[in-house]
Design a protein that fits this description.
Elements: E1 3-7, E2 10-17, E3 20-27, H1 30-45, H2 52-55, H3 61-71, H4 79-90, H5 104-115, H6 120-139, H7 169-178, H8 185-195, H9 199-203, E4 210-211, E5 216-219, E6 228-231, H10 234-243, H11 256-270, H12 279-290, H13 295-302, H14 310-313, H15 318-324
Antiparallel strand pairs: 1-2, 2-3, 4-5, 5-6
Helix pairs in contact: 3-4, 3-6, 5-6, 7-8, 7-11, 8-10, 8-12
C-alpha cells in the first residue's frame, strides 16, 4: 500500500514493494499523488518495474535540475528567481557530470570558480539549490544518489548591508521617475519607503485588500508564508488610490522582471551607485524606528517574527541619535 503524506510544498506519495526500490514523488494536490501512486503500484504488479541501477547509470546532474525545475520550482513563491538560477546552473560544466561520478571536488571547484564572478551570498544560494535538488532526488524520486554538496565548505555568510539613502538620493529617484514614461516606478518607490514592503509584496497588491476606512492593507502572500495586515500612512493610502486605474485587480499589473529592468535603468540614469531596491526596505524600517515606533510596532509592519532579525535591517544614523541626547 502506498503512503501519502503532507509535505510543506504539497503531497508526497511513496511506494514500497519487496524486491523493488522505494520510489516517491511530491505533488501539489493530494489527488494527483494518489493517482500517481496507484499507477506505479499497478506497473509493479504487472511486472513493468524498471532496473533502477540501469536507468540512472547514464543520468547527469543536468537531468535532476531539469526535473526539479519542472516539478518543484513552480510550487514556490519566488519561482521566477529559481527558474533563472536553474537555467544558469544547467549551463555550467558541473551539470554535465554523471550522477555516478559526482563527488565533492566537483562542487568545490564550482564554488571557487563562481566566487570569481559573484559574491559569497550568491554562491551559497547556488550550492544550496544543488544540495536541495540532490536531496529531493534521493528522498522523493528514489534516485540512488549521494549529496556531496554537504561535504564541502561553503563561503562565509556575507555581512548584512547597511546602505541607506543619502539626503538627496530620494529626491533624485523621484525626479528621475517624473522624466520616465514608466508610470508605476514612482508610486512603487514611494510605497517601499512608506511601508517597508518587499518588491514582490508590492507587485501583488490587489485593490480589494485595501481597507480605506481602517487605513490598512492585507498582505495575503509573504516571503515567510505568514499573511499580515499593515497600517498605511496617509501618503501610502493616497499613493495606492492614485495608482489604481481600475482595469485590473492588481494595483501594479507588471512582472517582476519588467520592474527590475525599469529600476536599474532609473538608477543608472540618475547616477546613483550601489543601491538595490531592497535597500529601500532597510531605509523604511530605519525611518520607522526614527519616528519613535516600538519594536513590536515595526515588526507588525515589516513582518519580522523574530525581533532579532530587525537589527539586520535597522541602521540608525549616529548623528540623528545624538540630537536626542541634547
Amino acid at each position: 500500500m502506498a503512503s501519502i503524506r503532507k509535505r510543506h510544498n504539497g503531497w508526497q506519495a511513496q511506494v514500497r514493494r519487496n524486491n523493488h526500490p522505494s520510489i516517491a514523488r511530491t505533488f501539489r494536490y493530494k489527488s494527483d499523488a494518489i493517482a500517481w501512486a496507484t499507477k506505479q503500484e499497478a506497473r509493479i504488479e504487472t511486472g513493468e518495474s524498471i532496473d533502477f541501477a540501469e536507468k540512472y547509470k547514464s543520468m547527469r546532474l543536468f537531468d535532476l535540475l531539469e526535473k526539479y525545475g519542472a516539478e518543484v520550482t513552480p510550487t514556490k513563491l519566488s519561482a521566477y528567481k529559481e527558474i533563472y538560477r536553474i537555467q544558469r546552473l544547467s549551463r555550467h560544466p558541473v551539470s554535465q557530470t554523471l550522477l555516478s561520478n559526482l563527488k565533492a571536488h566537483h562542487f568545490a571547484q564550482f564554488r571557487d570558480e563562481r566566487l570569481e564572478q559573484a559574491g559569497t551570498q550568491a554562491v551559497r544560494h547556488d550550492l544550496n539549490l544543488f544540495g536541495h535538488v540532490l536531496k529531493t532526488a534521493r528522498l522523493d524520486w528514489g534516485v540512488p544518489v549521494s549529496n556531496p554538496v554537504q561535504e564541502i565548505r561553503k563561503p562565509p555568510i556575507s555581512k548584512s548591508r547597511n546602505r541607506r539613502l543619502d539626503l538627496d538620493e530620494e529626491e533624485m529617484l523621484l525626479q528621475g521617475c517624473d522624466l520616465s514614461w514608466v508610470t508605476y516606478l514612482k508610486p512603487i518607490i514611494m510605497l517601499a519607503l512608506e511601508t517597508a514592503m518587499r518588491r514582490g509584496e508590492i507587485l501583488r497588491i490587489e485593490y480589494g485588500n485595501i481597507d480605506e476606512v481602517q487605513r490598512t492593507l492585507k498582505i495575503p502572500v509573504t516571503k515567510n508564508g505568514h499573511p499580515r495586515t499593515i497600517p498605511l500612512s496617509t501618503l501610502a493610502l493616497s499613493t495606492l488610490q492614485s495608482a489604481y486605474d481600475g482595469t485590473s485587480g492588481k494595483i501594479f499589473p507588471v512582472s517582476p522582471n519588467a520592474f527590475r529592468m525599469a529600476w536599474e535603468k532609473l538608477r543608472r540614469r540618475v547616477g546613483i551607485v550601489d543601491l538595490h531596491f531592497h535597500d529601500l526596505r532597510h531605509e523604511a524600517i530605519s525611518r520607522l524606528f526614527e519616528k519613535g515606533l516600538s519594536i513590536p510596532e515595526v515588526a507588525l509592519i515589516s513582518g519580522h517574527r523574530d525581533y532579532r532579525m530587525l537589527f539586520r535591517y535597522t541602521h540608525l544614523r549616529a548623528e540623528d541619535v545624538a540630537k536626542k541626547l541634547d
